[in-house]
Structures are given as C-alpha cells and as structure tokens.
Amino acid sequence: MRYLGVAFILVVLSSCKPEPMEKADFLILNAKIWSDGMTDPYDAVAIKEDTILAVGFSDDLKARISPETRLIDAGGAFLCPGFIDSHVHFLQGGANLNSVQLRDADSPEEFIRRIADFAKKAPAGSWITGGDWNHESWGGELPDRNWIDSVTAGHPVFINRLDGHMALANTKAMELAGIKANAADVPGGAIVRDASGRITGIFKDNAMDVFYSAIPAPGPDQEDRDLQAAMAYVASHGVTSVHHMGTFADLAVFERNRKNGRLITRIYAATPLGQWEELVKKTEADGKGDDWLHWGALKGFVDGSLGSHTAAFFEPFTDSPADTGLYVNTPENLRSWIMGADKSGLHVVVHAIGDRANNLILNIYEETEKADGPRDRRFRVEHAQHLKPADIPRFARLGVIPSMQPYHAIDDGCWAEKVIGPERCKTTYAFRSLLDSGATPAFGSDWFVAPPIPLEGIYAAVSRRTLDGKNPDGWVPEQKITAEEALKAYTSGAAYSAFEDGKKGRIEKGKLADLVLLDTDLIHADPEAIRSAKVLWTMVGGKLVFEK
Question: What confidence tens digit (pLDDT) does each residue in 432-468 have?
Fold first, then answer.
C-alpha cells in the first residue's frame, strides 16, 4: 500500500507540471506600451507567427526566447496597436500619388502652372486625373476650363476637388464624354454655368458620372501598382488596416493580390449600397473573406459635401441663401436599399455631411431596427460632419457608429463659418459631444480627400488648430478630445466598427500582431509633438512592413 501511495503521489505531481513555455518568433522588449483597456505598465510583447502570444514584463517574457527568436529592444519607444483607417478610397489614393499634385496650390496661377508642367511630361493623349484641388486656398473662386485648355492641348483633363464631390473638366474631356452646351443637370448633381450660360467645366456629384464612363479603366498591372503604392504609403504612417469605400471592381483587385500573397495592409472592402443584392450573392458563394481581406459592408450616400455646396442642410447656406444642398440618392431608395441589405445580414455604412442628411439617415436606421428587430448591426454614419444638437445623443441610443475624419476639422475649419455660420459650426465634427453622449467613434482619413496619416488626425482631434494658423486655441475648442480618446478611435473603436474587435485593435494575447512603434509618447505629448512624431516601424501579422 505504501508503494502504491508513493506511485500515486508521483503521478499527481507529474500531472501538475507546467506545460513547456511556448517560444516566441518575435519578442519586443523595453517598450512603453499603450492599448485600450491595459492597466498594467507592461513593456514586452511576445509574438508567434501572426498572433500575440503574450504581453507582460521584459524580464518575464525573456523565458520565451529560443535561438530562432528575433529580438527587438524598443529602447523605451511608444508601442501601440496598429492604426486602423476606417475610411479610405485606397486605389484612388494610390493612383493620386502618381498624379498632378494640387492640394496645396494656393493661387489660380499656381494651379495652372502645375497642370501645365504635368501635361508636358504625360504620355500624349493620356487623361489627367486626380489633383485634389481646393478653391478655398485662393479665396473661393471656382476654376474654369478656360484656365487650363491652352496648357493641356491633346490631354483630356478631369481633376477632382479634394472632397471628391466636384471636378473640373477641360473642353477635350467634355467632348470625349459627350457633353453638349445644352446638357441638362441630373438628379443629385449639378453642372455649373457662368452668367452667359456657358458650362464652366465644373461638375458636381452625380453630374460627374458621365466622365467615369469615358475615362479608360486602368489595366490589372496599373491597378496592382496603385495598390502597392497605397499600401507602402500607409505602412510608413503606421496604418495596418483600412476600410476601403469603393466598387465591386476594386474588390477583384484586392482578391487578386490576396491570392498572390501581396497584401501588406489588411482591407475591409465596402461595395455600393445600391448593389446590395450582388453582395448577397457574393457572400453566399464565397463567404466574407479572411483576416487579410474581408467584405460584407455596403457604402451609400445621402448627400454631397460642404465645400461643393452639395451637403444637405435644414437651413440655407449662409453664403448662398437660396441653396440648402441636395440628396445624392432619394430617401425612398436609401430606405429600400438599407432595409433589404439589413434583412440579408450585411453591414450598412452611409455618408452624411449636412444636418438634414444626418437626421435622415438616423431616422432610416431607427425605422430599420423597428422593422427588423434588435441585433448587433453596428450601423455607421460616414463623416457625421454637421449635426443638429438633438441628433447627437441618438448615435449612442441607436448604437450607430460615427465614422469621422478629424483632419477635416482643421481643414474645413478654415472656411466653414462663411458657408454655414458660427452657430451650426458649434456641432461640426462634434467629437467631444458624441463621446460624452456615449457614442463609440471610429476615426479615419477619407484619403485621397485628406492625408492617411493618423498622427495628423490625432493632432487635429486634440488641438483643432486650423491649417491657416488662425485658431491657435482650437476651432470650436469645446469639441477637443484627449490623445487617448483619439487613439481609441483609431484602434479599438475602428476595429469595433468593422466587427473585428475580437481580433485586432488592442495589444493582448490572441489578437493579431499588428503593431506600430513611435518615437513619441502620444498620451503625454503636447499637440505639436504628436504632429511631429515619427513612425519607427510598422508590423502586420508579425512581419515588419515598414522600418524607418
């Protein structure tokens, strides 16, 4: 019996032995770690393949070192989850990197000179697109095709304002698109004419569509180059995931590059809301993708933009008393598409800029929930730019995510008051009010419209100092938020807005190893130091995709 007892004890003791500690492929030591929900001052992260294996203290995690483990001593640098840009036009952004650069053209003369210089180097007869001009940079006068016709001979030109809701076409482009002198406006769009009735070359919102049919589609090689340029650019700014707002054709580009193993940025691809039935068929046939590329979101539009005077407001524009903006899609179509998509279990995200547009989409979301019953929908309003005060608490109450772009606040803030007046500006990009009401914002850039640089976005949300330098204490300063709140919106909030909070957005065991190392402690830095901070490296899935 004594022998049996000893044997039993030995069996019990051997069964209590700890499992051998799993070794890390990658071990980051001596970092200053920030993550939403982290309360301990951890300074080390162990990574196995594409996943975080453990988070803890450097002395403890050194036990996970093997001869094959790659070590990184962060030297006290700031480590946080990889930034998630929750609103980009990714392929267009990549294409625009190689196009004429007009964003900072500050006079008509500079605007014309840059187009002329670009046209001289462009292949004969090729379309000149992109541009991202802003007429507010030279006082608000809209450009005219007469400005550029003489310097773009042989080149059709269709260059967009930086918000993407208005573009300038030269005469050659209008000819190729079949635009006649008596062309009529289209619903949800406008063709601008001068005092004599001549078409100036400015086309707004739905009136732009005819040009998209005329511009030759890029071939697969060009699409892939645009995508690679976009991914490399955002990686250099710490972005590890993007939410792309585009077309079914874009989805095919991403799928091709996923199949070839060429993605270094994780992509959540949204397709057009009006084509929701096609996305139903796609998900039934192919599922919704994987950790690198997934779909299931539908992007719709209520209205246009503030800068193009196509945002839908209850009251007229201050500088255009007869104009309250427009709906790009009818309320009836929006309601039908959203309810159909929702019944099919798809994710609805809708662009709304003006207060009337935001009110409408919140009403439709509320109607949809009442019709279909409660569930975890995570409806999103893209931009949520100008809100009636009474609509602000509705986001939290309805569980609607305000998907916002902080950089727009310091850009539009240079001129918004002359367009809508100071009273409506009080709830423009209302970050503080939305957070205080219990909403969960997701932050992004709207690239190509604004730079896909989260550090610029965090700076904008924290300081609200406009780009013209005229608001050193912040434009509508009561809407400032803290750096930590902005970081959450770029990480855990953005992950939540794509149903990905179970796998990304925080530094914790089991999450994907998507990380960014910065030379500045964003939590304790002043706004200017945040803006000038540098990305030291960016990691996606346990692999470094950018190193400074």
Answer: 999 999 999 999 999 998 999 999 999 999 999 999 9
CA distance 236 to 101: 20
Any idea which residue has 């267009």 for tokens?
92
Instruction: Report CA torsion sign: 527, 491, 82, 305.
Output: negative
Alpha-carbon gap, residue 529 to 548, rounded angstroms:
18
Task: Mention every residue, 6+ apart, whose C-beta is less than 8 A from residue 244.
Answer: 88, 89, 90, 91, 250, 254, 267, 268, 269, 270
Q: What is the distance between the alpha carbons of residues 388 and 354, in angstroms, rounded to a whole number?
A: 9
β-strand 442-443 against 166-169: which pairing, if any?
unpaired
User: CA torsion 136→142→145→150, rounded to 10°?
Assistant: -50
Half-sphere exposure of 236 (CA within 13 A, CB side): 7
User: In the chain, what are the domains?
Assistant: 18-76 (2.30.40.10), 92-214 (3.10.310.70)
pLDDT one-digit tens code per residue, 282-337: 999 999 999 999 999 999 999 999 999 999 999 999 999 999 999 999 999 999 99
Q: What is the pTM of this model?
A: 0.87
Q: Which residue has the tokens 């998509």?
A: 341
The DSSP secondary-structure symbol of 38 reads -
